[in-house]
Sequence to fold (134 residues):
Amino acid sequence: MTLELASHRRPAQTLASFAVAGTALVAIVLALGNLAFWLYAQNAVTAAAQEAAVVASREDGTPQGALQTARALLAASLGPGAEHVKTIDISVDANVATASVQGSWPVVLLGPLTSAPLRATATIERERFRPGGT
Fold:
């Protein structure tokens, strides 16, 4: 009778082990997917900062043109997720143009209150005519 009782427990234990392992596996896959989305968003923010700095560094470049370029690139890259990018700062002085893009990306597994930061800054020397090549 003890042998029969032990043989009936094993399938249930196997099912319980599978449920625990399956839940852990799904959580790991979702975490890796979330990490991949965040890395993609970070690359889009970096590209937007770089492109905005390039536009602002042109001899005829303006901060408004750089801002429009950054927003267009973010909208094309992230789609509706571009709304998570809250700050785009463009500064232009006589020698350099700097673009800073910041925002956050929601972490799906931890709920809407948790987000991962998105930050990128690019600085490029301005194009200008230099008489005598100096």
